[in-house]
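fold-stage: in
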Amino acid sequence: MKNFFNSETENKNPIETVIRMKDGYTVEKPQLFYLKNKITGKYLRSYTGLSMDDTTFRYEEVKDERVGGFGGGTTFTQQEIDSLETGSYEIIEVEE
C-alpha cells in the first residue's frame, strides 16, 4: 500500500487525496503501553462511570494486564502517559 500523504499533497488538495485513496492507504497505529506499579506489581486500568452520562475517567489497579472492562482498558498511548503522573509505574511496551 502507498503512503500518499506527504508535505506536497497533504491538506492542499483534499479531492485529489480522496481519489488517491482508492489505490489503498496505510494508517499508523500509535504504540501502546501497560503501566505496572513498581511496588504492588498491579497494572493501571482506566474506565469511565457505569452510567452512559458519566464520562469521568477513573483509574484502578488490577492484577492482570489483559483485564479490560466496560468503558476502559489497560493500555495507554504515550500521549495519555504524558498527561498522567506515572512516577511509580513501569512503562511496558505492548507487543503486537
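fold-stage: in (second)
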Amino acid sequence: MHVICLGLSALDQVWRVDRPFAGGSEKIRAVEYATLGGGMAANAAVAVAKLGASVAFWGRAGNDAAGHEMKSAFTAEGVDVENFRLFPAGRSSVSGIIVDSSGERQIVNFRGLYPEAADWIPLKIVAHASAVLADPRWVEPRCSVKRVRAAFRPCSTATWPTPRCSSGWCR
C-alpha cells in the first residue's frame, strides 16, 4: 500500500500553561514547551507511516530553518519527502499554540509565503497510489489530483479522518 498526503505542513510551537489568559495584556509562565509538526495532511502522513504503510508527503515550505526542521522530522518518521518542496524565497508556515490545563487552546498561525502553483507535482504518480489525502486548503493541486484519481481509485479531498462520498469514488 502506498499513500500520498498532499497539503499544508506547519511547525507548531506549543506552550502548556496552568491557566488560560484572563484577557488583556499579561504574561503567563509555561509549564511545558515543545516544537512539533502540524498540518492536516502532514499529521496524516506521519500517522500512516507509524501504521507501517508507505507514505509520501507532497507540500511546500520555505527554504528556512522551519522548512528544514519539518523535512528532517518527516524523514525521521519514514515519510517520503521527495515532493516536499522548499522554496528559496518562501517562508514556512509556523504556529504558536497555547494549551491550558483543561485542554483549551489558542492558536496563532502564519500560513507561509510560497507559490500557489503546483505545476511541479508529478500527477502521473497519483494513479498508482493506493490512497490519496488532499488537504482542501491548497486548491490547485487538490483539484488536479482529484481529476486524476477519479479515473482510478477511492480518494478523499475532505478532512482527516476522511469520509467517502456516497459512491466511494472521487467526483
